[in-house]
């Protein structure tokens, strides 16, 4: 079922992107083929046989907004560019986007022939007497299919991210599955399970107290409480695998699965190690300041989740499904 959901979302995204691209093309949103008059403030004139000029494109904000039909703020648009000008006053230009580049040009640069770099042609240019400035008529390279390119690029980027995450989890999973195996052989899992039996019996009444799923869930919850983030993932997967062995209706989550998922996703924590590390890396003066609020917030989320899951699993509809599954 989830596969159909993902396929539908991808199809909707592609259709929406194509629709927006058709709309942009019909309205000529990026003014393909249309020249714009720009003042060129010269920083460096060519020397020797070179024809390269360096300087700033300057356009008043009113002219920019009128040309592109946008509502950019400020008094002017200023962009450092490099121009190659021939003897007849025609040539080319290019520039890389920066933080000060207008949003419209940044959007165009993402779909340009060179990523984050805009190029174009110079139709005519008139220099001032002192060669310190010029007025040029320029045409930007044609920009088309912006949205569909963005969707395609996002798909490729996230596919790459998924592979990186998967490869990164291999080491963590191997480590923690090994630790769990050592703890199991040493009897630590049995000790923890016995100590927490009164709690687990109330939370997971359908799971035998000596079942391997209990140990995996305890290890997962412990890792989450210590803020170990991805380190808890292999234990969570192992717990779900063991819980599924008790499932009499494959494909439908049991009460125990739902309860464990609530505890896992509500983020019950004692030491938010990952969040503290992020704050420290960002230069926080007191990265551990969030511990109290993190514990309180996670406790509230876990309590609310457990109350909700226990109430829902007692509703007649779900109880009937459970009784049918148990035969």
Tell me what you see in this structure.
The protein is of the alpha+beta class. The chain has helices spanning 2-27, 61-68, 103-110, 146-186, 188-195, 197-203, 212-225, 233-245, 255-265, 273-281, 291-312, 316-326; strands spanning 36-44, 52-60, 76-85, 91-96, 117-127, 133-140. The chain folds into two domains: 31-143, no CATH class; 187-326, no CATH class. The protein has twelve helices and six strands. A six-stranded antiparallel barrel has the order 1-2-3-4-5-6.
Give descriptors for this structure.
elongated, 2 domains, 327 residues, 54% helix
Protein topology:
Elements: H1 2-27, E1 36-44, E2 52-60, H2 61-68, E3 76-85, E4 91-96, H3 103-110, E5 117-127, E6 133-140, H4 146-186, H5 188-195, H6 197-203, H7 212-225, H8 233-245, H9 255-265, H10 273-281, H11 291-312, H12 316-326
Antiparallel strand pairs: 1-2, 1-6, 2-3, 3-4, 4-5, 5-6
Helix pairs in contact: 1-4, 5-7, 7-8, 9-11
In short:
By secondary structure, the chain is α+β, with helices and mostly antiparallel strands.
What coarse outline follows from CA principal-axis ratios? elongated
Spatial strand arrangement across the major sheet: 1-2-3-4-5-6
Question: Mean pLDDT, rounded to whole units?
Answer: 83
Low-confidence segments: none
* N-end to C-end Cα span: 25 Å
Report strand %.
Answer: 15-25%
* Broad structural category: alpha+beta
Question: Could you give a short account of the major beta sheet?
Answer: 6 strands, antiparallel, barrel
* Gyration radius, in Å: 31 Å
* Helix fraction by DSSP (H/I, runs of at least 4): 40-55%
User: Tally of extended strands?
Assistant: 6
The tally of domains stands at 2
Element pattern in H and E: HEEHEEHEEHHHHHHHHH
Number of helices: 12
